Amino acid sequence: xxxxxxxxxxxxxxxxxxxxxxxxxxxxxxxxxxxxxxxxxxxxxxxxxxxxxxxxxxxxxxxxxxxxxxxxxxxxxxxxxxxxxxxxxxxxxxxxxxxxxxxxxxxxxxxxxxxxxxxxxxxxxxxxxxxxxxxxxxxxxxxxxxxxxxxxxxxxxxxxxxxxxxxxxxxxxxxxxxxxxxxxxxxxxxxxxxxxxxxxxxxxxxxxxxxxxxxxxxxxxxxxxxxxxxxxxxxxxxxxxxxxxxxxxxxxxxxxxxxxxxxxxxxxxxxxxxxxxxxxxxxxxxxxxxxxxxxxxxxxxxxxxxxxxxxxxxxxxxxxxxxxxxx
Length: 327
Description:
CATH architecture of the largest domain: Alpha-Beta Complex
Radius of gyration: 20 Å
Structural class: alpha/beta
Strand content: 25-35%
Largest sheet: 7 strands, mixed
Order of helices and strands: EEEHHEEEEHHEHEHEEHEHEHEHE
Shape: globular
Oligomer: single chain
CATH superfamily of the largest domain: Medium-chain alcohol dehydrogenases, catalytic domain
Number of strands: 15
Distance between the termini: 28 Å
Number of helices: 10
């Protein structure tokens, strides 16, 4: 009898999308607290591309210095539970689920084992597998930064930089549902889409730098690191907050320096480093929003798993609208 196997993608050396190589591995056996998931869809994110490339360099103590410590690709996924460990209580065979593999990676595959105590949730019927696969990227990260980090309040003025991407499209919907006054920037082709998501005002950055105007904001969410705290500071109101999920040495310095005094502050807190129980609580609230029609993940392109390299190339082109998924 032939042993059961899975299909996955390996990146054994840091580099361009072409470093990704299809591999076959033995079918994993779930441990006592693990579930084995048949993956139906998995996300391809900007963060996945950065980890594949080993960027930024100061992240390599976590990823692996010379080469990836965990060589499989992908973090966000959705699928069906097909086996459970003897001590599993939260899930049963046949459950539709979604979640993230975290720093162990391996979501861009046909099967994966995850611990039930991790960031893993039951998938509601109202979300497709493709939509559920991206919930732990843009929606979860944006919710964390807007609510847990910035503590966004109703009526506050928010500027979302790069409003058409995975984080931006989610942030607009989350902030609008929270009662904020949302302004977002995007390219000309995405103006209508971004406005429909809930931005009361849209700035076409090909015609005007969104940070050059006279407007001030209580929160500026720089979703992909297109600006800096130094540049955004002039557009922040008293007590204003600049958020960016892309940690650089410059941002780290701004976070530390802005702690002194009472002026605007740069803030950072990695969503992926929060305890799973905290992230599951955020996802509960996001699922409530989705059920109420206040949040719909935006899907740009859906590729077959066999086209993962092309999916990474599209994400790195900088022209995606919302999220990219492989199935």
